[in-house]
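User: Small ask, check this?
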Amino acid sequence: MSSDTTAPLDLTSPLAPAEYPSLAPGYLNTATVGIPPARALAALHDALGPWAAGHTGGDAFEAAVTSARAAFARLAHVPAEQVALAGSVAGSVGLIATALPPGADVVAYERDFSALVHPFAARPDITLRLVPLEELAAAVRPGTALVAVSSAQSSDGRVADLPAIRAAAAVHGARTLVDATQSAGWLPLDASLDDYVVCHTYKWLCAPHGAAFLTVRPGAEDTLAPTFAGWYAAADRDSIYGPIAELAPGAHRFDTRPAYLPHIAAAASFSLVEELGVDRVHAHDTALAQRLRDGFTALGYSPVPGPSAIVAVPGVPTAVTDRLRAAGASFAARAGNLRLAPHFYTTAADVDLVLAAAS
């Protein structure tokens, strides 16, 4: 159950302090990797012991996969039948790119994350048009097959105008593909609005690498071919030899064999996100992000504006980033920007640590 989102914000405390008893101050790098809560570490520990003793735990592992899929479906506001298990964003995008007919017209943001763009660039027989983010909707034209974009940009945190992109796609009969890796967990997600949504969950959903998902809207399954289907995508998983007689229904026919341990931790991490509620996390994260933007603006910088939990500050000298590291801050450098990304374990003290070091 989601927490009360009407309560006043208290930025002096993390939203789930008991889950992060040993997190060092100054961690502002969730856009690179999210930190697992204590419950996820406990779930992994509980799984490793029996495995080491020779009890492979197949049923328990499968239950964790089912739980993780169901939780992601709830977070994405779609039925679990519309959620396929994936190993990576690039793999899921490759499935979509492979299924496009020769000559297909695809529109994408010119500086989007490579995993979303390159699978289309690898198809020399289709037309890939790369345009500025703010021009995506206007670039959709008659005959466009697909528009692909990250809901929040890795390089600078900008949030795509998805309503405008979807509206333009609907006018011209194009399908939409959204990468929610940099937004799911802090930005409310409704995957029912897009034909395909891909998401790796090791950032804002605080799961390990290897737990990724692909949602496929009803009617869009027929646009994809189960080219990469293995036994896990079969309706009957007891039949594991020879061609698959019958594929699983819905998006499950596109399942890749799940990595069990990441899904065990993912199920636990997702439960925390659900308990906190994405709306509450959004309010917390974006308030801290704005505190960072205001602070860097006061120091004479020009942070990328916008309502994002990802803060990008161009033109920060190396001497300043050296001071940030010396102060214990964790951050990233992307496309010429200092990138900072607070999450539900971040507090105002973490933000102020960075601003004091940057002064």
About this structure: The chain has two domains: 17-36+278-358, 58-275. Strands lie at 83-86, 105-109, 127-131, 144-150, 175-179, 196-200, 212-216, 311-314, 332-334, 337-340. The CA atoms of residues 39 and 277 lie 17 Å apart. The radius of gyration is 21 Å.
